[in-house]
Design a protein that fits this description.
The complex is a heterodimer. Chain A has two domains: 80 residues, Beta-grasp domain (Ubiquitin-like (UB roll), Roll), CATH 3.10.20; 68 residues, Orthogonal Bundle (DNA polymerase, domain 1), CATH 1.10.150.120. In chain A, strands 2-1-5-3-4 form a five-stranded mixed β-sheet, with helices on both faces. Chain A is an alpha+beta fold. In chain A, helix 2 packs across helix 5. Chain A is 31% helix and 15% strand. Chain B is an alpha+beta fold. Chain B has 19 helices and 30 strands. In chain B, the strands form eight sheets. Chain B has a seven-stranded mixed β-sheet, with helices on both faces. A five-stranded mixed β-sheet of chain B has the order 9-17-16-15-10. A four-stranded mixed β-sheet of chain B has the order 18-26-27-30, with helices on both faces. In chain B, helix 14 packs parallel to helix 15 and helix 15 packs across helix 16. The chains are: A alpha+beta, B alpha+beta. The interface between A and B is large, with 57 and 62 residues.
């Protein structure tokens, strides 16, 4: 239905949560539009559209990005991870488990982005201090929780993911 | 069943309530499966984008939508002329147009809405709408608006008075004569944005089940939205069905503004016969949505030499913006609580809501309390200073005790008046008394200095004499023992589904995981008013418990046959029904349900909870304003950088009497979140308007606390069970957010001797004593 000039459309390929996808995009599409509207991965949220709130955070080639600031064409050939990819074979990721156990969720709108920022942190730094956790999620705004239970959850998740240290 | 007195349960026997169980909606939210409004799509769905006012106050001379209608993908352009029913909505007075017709009253007014096949097409066509305006003189200053001879923004509202609440107790003139010390101070507060991270959203779907209009949305109060949509469509209430989607935060904010969005979507859906979705951008959200009222507050207090407060006179102007919205209710809470939790024999309070052309204001977490608590708790410290007393001593000397009489003449009885307990617990937790003396003695003018402060409050639970106060819950046990719970109050993110499910599981004896709490649907459950006023646990929880009691009676009857004992010998817990004195003799909950179903028993019930009677005299401001109260205190330690004016909050102790913590984990979440929001109010946040034009439009300019800003918080849960609430529970959501700003202001004074009477305490105010921002001109004490 979209009245867009077909010759301005471009087909891009990338990987989302381990699956190869091909999507037709237009020049104005952002990564978040592709994820939410074309692939129907609606776990990624839009809160501000200018990269300030972090609700749209996904991991792109291992780096957390605000998907509202990434032009869709840049996703060509990339590896994208979204909140939908955290759960594996019906089993929650330790970060998800920890968020549930620590009541680190209220309205839940910031939660997907928060989880992705936390995941990127723990891969880089498996045993962060509270200060490091707070810094890593400082681009993810939450209006409900005051952050304490989120920080506790991430700290706990770091232990669950790598209990050897 | 009305909310009478009932025996308070023995805490040690609780199986589900009073435990930090997992949130029932947690899995859906951590997996991304929870469906927020914008996550839904419908076949042939269209998108609406609103054209807003160019000037805050202007006549619309001409509105030409023809070009926009011809743009690619545009299906139609909706204006006031398309509205089949009421043109305007409002909780008290229907004075806010869904689309303006002849003039704009503030920058967020909707002039027209493009409805198109895609959001981009709708957006692009906005530029093609031609509007010819004639700017009108406007009023942006609340004191100017309230003055004699001021321009009247609405006919028949002289001095732009939306409403006036007087309160008279004793005789203040006599009281001031008997005083040894009299202080007069002006305090002001700023315009505050709710800043829920999910912007407003709604979808109207026409023609489901005949001619019913179904609305899905991020809606705090589904029944209010239904009432407004029905009136705008000109149909009866049962022709509109509102279903609440998972909501990305609200804090009082997704009420009137969302009703307007729902109504716009419904008008467009009716006209096109297709589903219509409206999702605001952050900029639209901040420009259109109502805010927390800025207040100008003039306080006069008189006390004797030994610290007894004899008289207090309060004059408050609340900036309502151009529409009544919730202003009459918000300012009512202010008039009740304006003089704080102190026994004062002579009180004269006048609170006015005032129309201006600023962004309209309404409900926001606290609801008329954060403003007056900022003033009154700053004033208490100023009075203590004037008397040469310790601020703690002054408050304990005048603070409410069991049987104290409030400003409205209400005797505080029937619940535990725990003011002293919360004050002592919060102040002790940060070592207030000792630090206060040390810091006050040592005030270098340079470098970083520390200070401590606190603020305390009492707060009426639920709506009080504001309005109808009753809640319904439908509990239905299925043949396999699983349970549906439907409530008239809605999950806003705070954890209501979990708390209600806990209460149902506790009372019914089923397992928590066997309960499914359905999203609120106005076609299923009776109108229960709004999920506001920190009333859900007390009022809604009461209705859950009543529903569960009714169903339990039926199930016990069934179980009594299976167990061969009389029903009154049975108890239920953890998915089993068993003989009281022989817990080994039991039957599974699900087997009872199965048997009950085969016997044709009704295993569902509607629980109803009606608030106890309250009274109010509009002329004198006297009466039993609320049926019970909560008490809270937050104490804070700050570090002030004398060279930059930066205030860093180091530690907060928050003591709140909640009656009973149904879920201590989510309750702590309320405290942490309220403290963060309260800190934003004190230090960071302000929606800047310049002559009615919104300057702060997104999170790059409207600054809310990040994970790097929040201080260490010590949550102190105080439990004095209340006879009105389920298992003794009262309320916590709003009190957590109303105390920190004055506590910080008092701590800043303690640190560096600067008394700041205007919020927020930003760098300029702390360093220079005045704000450099042009927003709203000079305020309050900055004028002198």
């Amino acid at each position: 239905m979209k009245q867009v000039d077909r010759c301005k459309m471009k087909l891009i390929s990338f990987t989302v949560n381990g699956t190869d996808v091909k999507v037709e995009i237009s020049a104005s599409d952002r990564l978040i539009d592709v994820l939410r509207d074309k692939l129907r991965l609606t776990g990624t949220k839009e809160g501000c559209g200018i990269g300030e709130c972090g609700a749209c955070t996904v991991i792109m080639n291992g780096v957390p990005v605000n998907s509202c600031l990434v032009p869709a064409f840049q996703a060509e050939g990339s590896v994208i991870e979204t909140v939908e990819g955290l759960e594996q074979s019906g089993k929650l990721h330790p970060l998800q488990e920890a968020f549930v156990d620590h009541a680190a969720i209220q309205c839940g709108f910031c939660t997907p982005g928060m989880l992705m920022s936390a995941l990127a942190l723990l891969r880089e730094n498996p045993h962060p201090t509270r200060e490091e956790i707070a810094r890593a999620i400082s681009g993810n705004l939450c209006r409900c929780t005051g952050y304490h239970q989120i920080i506790e959850a991430i700290e706990d998740a770091s232990m669950r993911m790598d209990p050897t240290e | 069943m009305s909310g009478g007195m009932e025996a308070i349960d023995n805490m040690s026997s609780f199986k589900v309530v009073n435990h930090p169980v997992r949130r029932v909606d947690a899995i859906a939210k951590v997996t991304g499966r929870a469906k927020f409004t914008d996550d839904l799509t419908f076949d042939r769905m269209l998108y609406g984008r609103v054209l807003r006012a160019k000037y805050p106050h202007a006549k619309i001379l001409e509105l030409d939508t023809r070009k926009a209608e011809e743009a690619p993908g545009v299906v139609c352009v909706i204006t006031y002329a398309d509205v089949p029913g009421a043109q305007a909505i409002g909780p008290v007075r229907p004075d806010m147009p869904v689309f303006v017709s002849t003039k704009t009253m503030y920058l967020g007014d909707a002039v027209a809405m493009v409805v198109a096949e895609t959001p981009e097409m709708a957006e692009q066509a906005l530029d093609l709408i031609r509007v010819e305006y004639e700017e009108l003189p406007a009023i942006y200053d609340v004191e100017e608006a309230a003055s004699e001879g001021a321009l009247e923004l609405h006919e028949d509202y002289p001095r732009n008075i939306v409403n006036h609440y007087p309160l008279r107790k004793g005789n203040v003139e006599e009281g001031f004569k008997a005083s040894d010390i009299i202080l007069e101070r002006t305090y002001t507060t700023q315009l505050i944005e709710h800043a829920y991270i999910e912007p407003e959203a709604a979808i109207a779907v026409p023609g489901v089940a005949g001619d019913i209009m179904t609305i899905y949305g991020s809606i705090q109060n589904p029944f209010t939205a239904r009432r407004h949509v029905a009136s705008v469509l000109g149909v009866s209430l049962n022709k509109v069905r509102v279903v609440q989607c998972t909501m990305g935060g609200s804090f009082g904010g997704k009420d009137d503004v969302v009703s307007a969005i729902c109504a716009r979507a419904a008008v467009a859906a009716l006209k096109t016969g297709r589903p219509v979705k409206i999702v605001h951008t952050r900029e639209e959200s901040i420009i259109e949505s109502y805010k927390r009222h800025p207040y100008v507050m003039k306080y006069k207090v008189g006390a004797t030499r030994d610290g007894k407060i004899v008289a207090m006179e309060v004059y408050i102007l609340a900036d309502a913006g151009p529409y009544s919205s919730m202003t009459p209710f918000v300012t009512w809470r202010s008039v009740v609580q304006a003089t704080g939790p102190y026994e004062i024999p002579n009180v004269k309070t006048d609170v006015y809501g005032i129309f201006t052309n600023n962004t309209y204001t309404g409900a926001m977490r606290g609801f008329g309390s954060p403003q007056i608590i900022f003033a009154q708790e700053s004033l208490m410290d100023e009075l203590a200073e004037g008397l040469g007393m310790d601020p703690l001593e002054l408050r304990l000397l005048n603070g409410f005790r069991q049987g104290s009489v409030t400003a409205s003449g209400q005797v505080l009885e029937g619940h535990t008046v725990s003011l002293e307990e919360v004050i002592r617990k919060a102040t002790d937790a940060i070592g207030y008394s000792e630090k206060w003396k040390t810091y006050a003695k040592n005030r270098p003018a340079k470098g970083k200095v520390r200070g401590v402060g606190f603020a305390t409050s009492y707060r009426g639970v639920s709506l009080g004499a504001e309005g109808v106060d009753a809640v319904a819950t439908l509990l239905s046990v299925q043949p396999d023992g699983s349970v549906y719970l439907h409530s008239g109050l809605a999950e806003n993110g705070q954890g209501l589904k979990t708390v209600f499910s806990q209460i149902a599981a506790e009372e019914l004896g089923c397992k928590l995981e066997d309960i499914v709490f359905m999203d609120t649907d106005t076609s299923v459950i009776p109108d229960s008013g709004a999920t506001v006023a920190s009333r859900s646990t007390t009022m809604g929880g009461g209705s859950v418990r009543n529903a569960a009691k009714k169903v339990k009676e039926v199930l016990f009857e069934v179980a009594s046959k299976l167990l061969n004992v009389s029903p009154d010998e049975i108890e239920a817990a953890d998915g089993k029904m068993y003989v009281k004195d022989e817990p080994g003799r039991s039957v599974d909950f699900k087997d009872v349900a199965k048997a009950g179903y085969s016997e044709g028993k009704l295993m569902a019930a509607l629980g109803w909870y009606h608030a106890p009677k309250v009274t109010w005299d509009e002329e004198t401001g006297q009466g039993k304003a609320y049926f019970t109260y909560v008490y809270g205190c937050q104490a804070v330690e700050v570090e002030v950088d004398c060279d930059t004016g930066k205030v860093k909050v180091l530690k907060v102790a928050a003591a709140h009497d909640v009656g009973r913590a149904i879920n201590p984990a989510t309750l702590k979440g309320q405290i942490y979140g309220g403290v963060a929001m309260g800190m934003g109010y004190g230090l960071l946040e302000e929606v800047e308007l310049q002559k009615g034009i919104t300057k702060t439009r997104n999170f790059d300019e409207y600054i809310i606390a990040t994970s790097m800003d929040v201080p260490e918080v010590i949550p102190i849960i105080v439990e004095n069970p209340d006879s009105h609430g389920p298992y003794g529970a009262k309320a916590v959501a709003e009190p957590t957010c109303e105390l920190l700003a004055p506590a910080i202001a008092n701590a800043v004074y303690n640190a560096c001797g600067k008394r700041i009477r205007d919020l927020p305490l930003d760098l300029e105010r702390v360093l220079l004593g005045r704000s450099l921002r042009a927003a709203r001109g000079k305020r309050g004490s900055e004028q002198s």
